Amino acid sequence: MIDFTDRLLPDRGQPARAIHVVRPDGFDAWLAAQPPRVRTAVAAHRLRGKPGDRAILPGDTADDWAMLLVCNDPVASPWRIASLGASLPEGTYRLATGEVGRAGLGWLLAQHSFDRYTKGDPVGPRVLLTDDAARIDDTVRLAAATALVRDLVNTGASDLGPAELEAEAELLAKRHGATLTVTRGDALATGYPMIHAVGQAATRDRAPRLIELEWGDPAHPRVAIVGKGVVFDSGGLNIKPGAGMRLMKKDMGGAAHALALAGLVMAARLPVRLHLLIPAVENAIAGNAFRPGDVLQTRLGLTVENTNTDAEGRLILGDALAKAGEDKPALIIDFATLTGAARVALGPDLPPLFTDDDALAADLLAAASEVGDPMWRLPLWDGYDEMLTSDIADLVNAPDGGFAGAVTAALFLRRFVPKDTPWVHIDTFAWRPSAKPGRPKGGEALGLRAVYQMLKARYPAR
User: Boundaries of each Cytosol aminopeptidase domain copy (predicted)?
Assistant: First the structure.
């Protein structure tokens, strides 16, 4: 993965080319203040100050030049200059106004690409200077965490199974002095029966597991982060059609978010007792695959009638959430690529969050707005709880009819969370179907920065 540390540096007066970022409503005033050579160059490009207009501006000497970008994004947007981070030649740059702010993140991420299976970007680093040196470390960590999510989600399932997710957690544990515990294969059958049931049909080298990492002072508030780690989802015996299976390498996107967030929390040394839990499985098809109609035992003691083997993510999360709740955490956060219904409701860019805690929801939405990582609250509507009723067990995993699919999935998860424990479920897509500046098509972190910002505000580093 790209090293971002040399691409956002403190401005100490080093030689650098200027970047003029001008709002459309300020374009005429900016242009009037420029020397004749700049006005001539802008006229030659026939620019009128529309968003997206850009030009190379001549300097005092033959090899001196600057960059103009007309942009109506607010100064707080991470993506304000992302298009330049990807397109400018190798070199060192500074914003003419000096206001980098959150735009440093987009500058860095514009230079990241997933090149595991292709040749990488031959262009050298584009360095941005900033006078806000205190923000650099956190921005670099956010870029690295986002790139980690993208890389993990983009990796083909043949190269990323439960063992590889475990290896990522092990790297994190070694880097930050955390403790790693892994329960694998048939050892799951008694303690985590739903994780075992979903993953038992996979080959032995892709055996299911619950990956747990713990870090921090036990005296600090306990925060549990849970991530759905379905490394590939065939749909099980309720097999998906080919088109529906095409992107199912990304069904471990929740685990990727959880790993990245845990890394951010530990790197920032937030005063929490971190508990990371990743149930990692492949939902495969074999003679021992779990079946529609099977009644599954759970860690919590409830019984679940499995009505759809393609609603497996909520099953593995149920056991993991039950385990997280046993240690009386101050907060539980789960990320999951859980339902297509969430995409139908809100599209690919806007992950829904579900929580019964109004203060937690308000903090998350405020953080999302602050860092430009939008989310939307959907209801845990109690009236739909009856849709989970089973004739033969305590509940079903997937109600008939398909109404309110994202809501009923969240209500299923709520059954496994202690009632007095603050909890939020984020149904992230972890994928970008089309490219935008700084955000290529493919795996994407959606909701990661918002949750991290909320945690920093609740548990400020000392």
Answer: 308-315
